[in-house]
Structures are given as structure tokens and as C-alpha cells.
């Protein structure tokens, strides 16, 4: 991709996001009514059930089918990014022990997309270093795996030693420790699913070290220390979009690859928490949401009143005996449906926002003299965070 192509695409997305802010810069949970002025759009949203909302939200094809007529520029600004075309990397089954099916797919596709024989590779925020392991095994790479959790380093090192791989784990905090020493002599930096600040630092440190190749599959753009997004490229710096941490979260929101049972449990959890909050704010006379800790999923296949008792105890309250919570559940269901309908529109902008963020990184790398490539590593059903950004000096 030439820098001019990247710039053009970025500007197109930037204009779209700027002009259509009313549709995505809002908090669906805090609305009491549909906030959009377009009557036909509202009519369409009101016709959707909760199940339809979920189905449309997870399907780019359905999103396009229902909403292209309302947001033609949005769908036009989403050109089809090429998918990586794997030839098939043959790996022995024992290399994937303890790794889930979808995770293994991501790892082996990433390895095949970037792998070259004999390189010195730095694996950024490695976890147990599964990607590094595959690169050592399949391409005879010498891999240094950085990870700040000692236990993951020990487990990864143990496994690498057992397989006699040239993989060295270093316990290292990439946000605070010096990165020059670990980057010295490195040919290729790889970062699979490194969150916000972690992959940003990977890119800036890789550039500073004149690393020949950088390959990043970013995720969780909102996991950053700053409250506000700090653009990396000169073009993004000129944008009027000033993104808060909460807004960055939109880029990764509401997409899941979970199965039907997990989805149902999650739905019950959201509904019950909402119903409990309605009761709680009635008790306290304040509409303010009170934080509830996360809790075991088993609560959400039991009875609502058991959960409500537990929740009330967290706030030093007592759920009244004989209160079945039905009225709160009914109200919560209505509010949740409203929220989902608004999110349906808001979520149309998550891919444009994600692309805006990734293009900011791509433009930064291009400005630093790299040849940049952007592709989809896999289908979104394997992971919705599937944008592989590669840069070659
Ligand atoms: C989402 S996981 C990805 C792990 C691995 N790359 C993969 O895809 O399986 C992110 C990893 O980054 C590590 N991490 C988080 N903050 C870090 C830091 N400041 N320095 C180094 N590693 C960090 C976490 O412990 C975790 O293992």
C-alpha cells in the first residue's frame, strides 16, 4: 500500500467519523428513548427484537442489508481489505497442546504470514510464547520472548527447553524497562494481540531501533494510560477527533466469538445487573450506577433473587424477602432492548473507528520510511481483531 493510498483512505474514514458523530459518540445505556432524528431509521430499529439485534450486530452482511440505505458513505468507506491466503503450514499436533482451537488458528496463520527462515525475532508481550515457539519450530528462528509475568515466562521456557527450541524468555515490562538492549540485533518484531499501549510501544520502540520488520495484530485500543488518544501520525494529529478512552472501546465492543450457551449466560447477566441497578437506585433515591464486582457465571443459571441478594449484600443493602424482582426485570428488559437498538447503529462505526486507529499506526510507520501492508489475517469468527499490520524497512 502506498502512503498516498493510506492517506486517502484515512481521510475518507476521518470525514465519515467526524460528520456522523451523533450516531456513535453517545452512551446507549443512558438513553431513555431513541436519540436519532431520522424517522425511518427509528421505525426500522423499533421493529427489531433482542434476538434480531444480536444477530445483526454480529453479521456484517446483515448490517449492510439493513443499514446501507441509511449510511451509504459508511459502507463505501469500508473497501474489502485482502485476506491473508495461507498455503498451509504443517505443524505437529503436539505443538498445540493446551492451546484452544481458535487461538491455535490465529497463531499458526500469523506465523505463516510473517515467517522466514533464520531470523532473530523478538516476540512482544508473549504470554507463554506460543507464537515464538511456532516460529522457532517452523522457521528455525532464534526467538526472544518478552513477558512481564514470571510464571508465564517459566512455563514458556520450560516448554521451549523440552522441545529444544532456540527460544529465550525474558521477564520484562515493556512499558517501563529499557527496550533498546532487547531490540539490539533483532530482524523482526512480532506482537500478537498486544493491547493499546503495549503495541504502540512495540511500534515506536521498533522504529527507534531501526528494526527491519514489524508485525502487529493490535487489540484493545482503549487499554492505554492516557485518558485521551494520542495520534501517532501527522495526519491523525490534524484530525478534529479527540478520542476518549471510553470512545476507543467502541472499536472492540460487542463482538464475540462465544458459543450460544455463553452468549445466553452473558445476556442474563446483563439483564439481571440492570434489574438490580433499577432496584438499587430506587432504594438510594439516586440514578447513579453503583459498581458491582464481577462474579462467577454460575449465578446466572440460578434464580434472579439469589443473585439480587448477593448484589445487595455488596452494597450493604438487604434484598427484601418475598420480592421476586419481576417488575425490575420487565423494566430492565425494555431498557436493554432500547440500548441494543441504539448500539446496533453505534456499532456500525466500530470497524471504521478500528481502521482509523490502525491506519494512524500504518501512516506513522510509512512516515518513518517503512513499506506498509495491511491485511485481514483470518475471518472475524476466528477473532474479530484480525487486522495484521506489517511494516518493512
Ligand atoms: C492478550 S495477551 C497476548 C499473549 C500472546 N501474545 C498471545 O497472543 O497469546 C497479552 C500479554 O501481555 C502481557 N503484558 C501485559 N502488560 C505487559 C507489560 N507491561 N510488559 C510485558 N508484558 C505485558 C500479559 O501478561 C499477557 O501475557
Question: Strands, helices and their partners?
Answer:
Layout: H1 3-19, H2 21-24, H3 39-46, H4 50-57, H5 60-67, H6 72-76, H7 101-114, E1 120-123, H8 130-139, E2 142-147, H9 150-162, E3 167-171, H10 180-183, E4 188-195, H11 196-208, E5 213-219, H12 234-237, H13 245-248, H14 260-284, H15 304-314, H16 326-346, H17 350-367, E6 371-376, E7 387-392
Helix pairs in contact: 1-17, 4-16, 7-8, 14-15, 14-16
Residues 125-127, 130, 146-149, 152, 173-175, 192-194, 198 line the site of S-adenosylmethionine.
State the fourth-level CATH superfamily of the domain at 93-252 and 350-392.
Answer: Vaccinia Virus protein VP39
Question: What is the CATH C-level name of the domain at 93-252 and 350-392?
Answer: Alpha Beta
Unreliable stretches (pLDDT < 50, length at least 5) are none
For the CA atoms, what is the radius of gyration? 23 Å
Characterize the structure shown.
This protein is an alpha/beta fold. It has a domain at 93-252 and 350-392: Rossmann fold. Helix content is 48%, strand content 11%. It contains 17 helices and seven strands. It has helices at 3-19, 21-24, 39-46, 50-57, 60-67, 72-76, 101-114, 130-139, 150-162, 180-183, 196-208, 234-237, 245-248, 260-284, 304-314, 326-346, 350-367, and strands spanning 120-123, 142-147, 167-171, 188-195, 213-219, 371-376, 387-392. The protein has a seven-stranded mixed β-sheet, sandwiched between helices. The radius of gyration is 23 Å and the shape is globular. The two termini are 14 Å apart. The mean pLDDT is 94. Bound molecules: S-adenosylmethionine. The site of S-adenosylmethionine has 16 residues, from β2 and β4. Residues 125-127, 130, 146-149, 152, 173-175, 192-194, 198 line the site of S-adenosylmethionine.
